[in-house]
């Protein structure tokens, strides 16, 4: 199977649409981590993503009869743009089914490349089901985003270029993983020619379908998939990609949203390219690999797989970068409610910079402050700050890894209710489309009162919403039965220390 896949990669037709992208050195990162770090620039493709390679190669394998029927796919972004461009170039009619939550920038880009866009459902699965129904109805040819050997072969041409452009020492290649098409193609070609080079997959920690499959020895379906890096938000790795690469990859690293944001900044500083979060995923994994293994003097390469991001989203990415770089600690600190307390607190911190400070009067005894403190990257310095404060008799709660604190509490104002209320707090992910909030509200029982609400638009496919609800008649034990019927992802936060300290 390996040899057959490599032959398909070498025979792949991609350069009628795709271009050969360069490898950019990353001098700032290389000095910082004492390794030679290289970035394969797939963000420079005509559709700003590697996806054009697989889409065009699959289209090139179709017969004239198949092309005459027209092609269709389901996609929320990069594959859609790749297929739209490939179909237009070949004179083939293309229909793209996209979830209604797809950012307008991606919908417009697909339409601009000549494809018909059908918006259906709130998630990729609903769009995929509708695409298959249209295949049955109209006889279209379905072009998979990753689960196809010709798509894999097209993506594998990335590895052909990498090994040709860099013939010297190469210790490891880091590949972003969604459905697995790219890593299957890269792993097959690299392991066939240079088995000494490690091929390491990188996944978002809340959509790690390849990691789960490798651990189980078979493909599994994740119960939930995070949407922060929507380009790799896949609940199950593809059947064909998994068959190709399950014995070829040398490991999988998972990273957080904050670590991806930090990698976006790293790519910008070294190349001036603005990557999407999934595009910076493999660099985030490369950095984590260095931290975990202590690697020095090695040559490591990652793939900037795409640059299709909403401009509005950059504010949120920048906001989380310092946390991803471990340059900021977010703390809840209890100080005395009296004049001079804040000055004393800053004196205890020493020469460290306070990056954020939020406070509201609660009573005349103690004040809970929400504070950001600049720390040295690496993580150990955060604990040193906490210990220094505790030695000075401050009560400290570390909120640096607390999603509720980072997404909502730091932006909320208004303080606590004047009286004790029977409130349950939940965090939701809502699809960003008209009517989504009303759908949520209308499905709540009529006697539930909303006592807290916080929402911020981050320019992503999903919005993050914090809701406090007063549930009468002791019905709180059944609250999640009602929430399950709505169909949005949620997390109970009523016992979260950030909520207890600042809002309860």
UniProtKB/TrEMBL annotation:
It comes from Vreelandella subglaciescola. GO terms for molecular function: L-serine ammonia-lyase activity; pyridoxal phosphate binding; threonine deaminase activity. Its EC number is 4.3.1.19. InterPro entries: ACT-like_dom_sf (IPR045865), Ser/Thr_Dehydratase (IPR050147), Ser/Thr_deHydtase_PyrdxlP-BS (IPR000634), TD_ACT-like (IPR001721), TD_ACT-like_sf (IPR038110), Thr_deHydtase_biosynth (IPR005787), TrpB-like_PALP (IPR001926), TrpB-like_PALP_sf (IPR036052). It holds the Pfam family PALP. Catalyzes the anaerobic formation of alpha-ketobutyrate and ammonia from threonine in a two-step reaction. The first step involved a dehydration of threonine and a production of enamine intermediates (aminocrotonate), which tautomerizes to its imine form (iminobutyrate). Both intermediates are unstable and short-lived. The second step is the nonenzymatic hydrolysis of the enamine/imine intermediates to form 2-ketobutyrate and free ammonia. In the low water environment of the cell, the second step is accelerated by RidA. PROSITE patterns: ACT_LIKE, DEHYDRATASE_SER_THR. Homotetramer. Gene3D superfamilies: 3.40.50.1100, Biosynthetic Threonine Deaminase, Domain 3. It catalyses: L-threonine = 2-oxobutanoate + NH4(+). PANTHER family: THREONINE DEHYDRATASE, MITOCHONDRIAL, THREONINE DEHYDRATASE, MITOCHONDRIAL-RELATED. It comes from the Bacteria. Keywords: Amino-acid biosynthesis, Branched-chain amino acid biosynthesis, Isoleucine biosynthesis, Lyase, Pyridoxal phosphate, Repeat. Residues 329-401, 424-495 form the ACT-like domain. The gene is ilvA. One of its GO terms (biological process) is L-threonine catabolic process. Pathway: Amino-acid biosynthesis; L-isoleucine biosynthesis; 2-oxobutanoate from L-threonine: step 1/1. This is L-threonine dehydratase. Its cofactor is pyridoxal 5'-phosphate.
